[in-house]
Amino acid sequence: MEGKSMKSESQPLNAILLTKIKEFTRDLLLNLSNGHSPIILLDRFRNHCILPDSNCFCSSNLPCGKQVLTLCKETHVHRLDVMLRVLLIVQKLLQENKHCSKRDIYYMHPSVFLDQSVVDRAINDICVLMQCSRHNLNVVSAGNGLVMGWIRFVEGKKVFDCISSPNTAHPIPVYVEEIKDIVNVADYILVVEKESVFQRLANDQFCNANRCIVISGRGYPDIPTRRFLRLLVENLHIPVYCLVDCDPYGFDILTTYKFGSMQMAYDTKHLRVPEISWLGAFPSDSEKYFVPKQCLLPLTAEDKRKIKAMLLRCYLQREVPQWRLELEMMLEKGVKFEIEALSVHALSFLTESYIPSKIHGQVNI
Ligand SMILES: [Zn+2]
């Protein structure tokens, strides 16, 4: 049984960020009024590199160099313009203790921002500059993730009582920092890539026979899903397994859970879940579980390109060489398959045989 509230931390951080924003803009103005062109140094972060000798610092959370923004460069002028506009919005959010989404911010100046990705980059720049996470800026995304199983918790004043009906999907809360009073009676956490697999488990009443918590990020997991998973792993100290399609996208999603993403590399230490084990589907599963040939799809040229690029990631060689071997095998076999292909034997094969046998037989890497 665990209970934890993190809300008390948010108030002073609010004040610290407001001071940092004030100091940053004041320095900028001072420089400009003195006739100097301001220089802004942004730490660069990466969650992996492609150095073959693996002698890098990608897993250390340390920045790797700095990016210099100046008003002498046309592209930087626009980037700074966007950053300052977003900073102003963030300042208001923090002052009024309100929240909004990246999309809301985009629609405040669509003719200046031109594209959502420009706003996303500005938010990332501000997080790097202020040394904080995105939710600290009161910028949140509408949660996309789902949870069910043997857990109960409170978010703010809302009770998520999954235990009373463990095979019913609940949305993963957006304000992860407000989660408290976690009651857990599960033995492990199962993360599934796709909603269709999550629904299969729900329909098969998977959680009746298995004391677990099931989570799905419905494809590439969003920030709340990854923070929620991270919170559970940190607090509950139970094993966590990941089930993805046997294709390059499934593998990339698996690595996003375990190692974080390049885009959010500055915040990897708060988002990655190094404890996660890969439960399947392995390329070697197609033979082991007799997946018929007609269920195996040939890899496209794009799939092959993606696999070759992923094989170069430094963390695979350094931290999970067995994952890398399976990925190499995918490329050698030249085929991919979906989790659902395992249902070719029986609709309940996944829930009654495949997952339990892998978990109880410790067939995960
Ligand atoms: Zn590296």
Automatic annotation (TrEMBL):
It is an enzyme of class 5 (isomerase). The active site is at Y107 (o-(5'-phospho-dna)-tyrosine intermediate). PROSITE patterns: TOPO_IIB. InterPro entries: Meiotic_Spo11, Spo11/TopoVI_A, Spo11/TopoVI_A_N, Spo11/TopoVI_A_sf, TOPRIM_Topo6A/Spo11, WH-like_DNA-bd_sf. It comes from the Eukaryota. GO terms for cellular component: nuclear chromosome. One of its GO terms (molecular function) is metal ion binding. Residues 79-139 form the Spo11/DNA topoisomerase VI subunit A N-terminal domain. This is DNA topoisomerase (ATP-hydrolyzing). The lineage of its organism: Eukaryota, Viridiplantae, Streptophyta, Embryophyta, Tracheophyta.
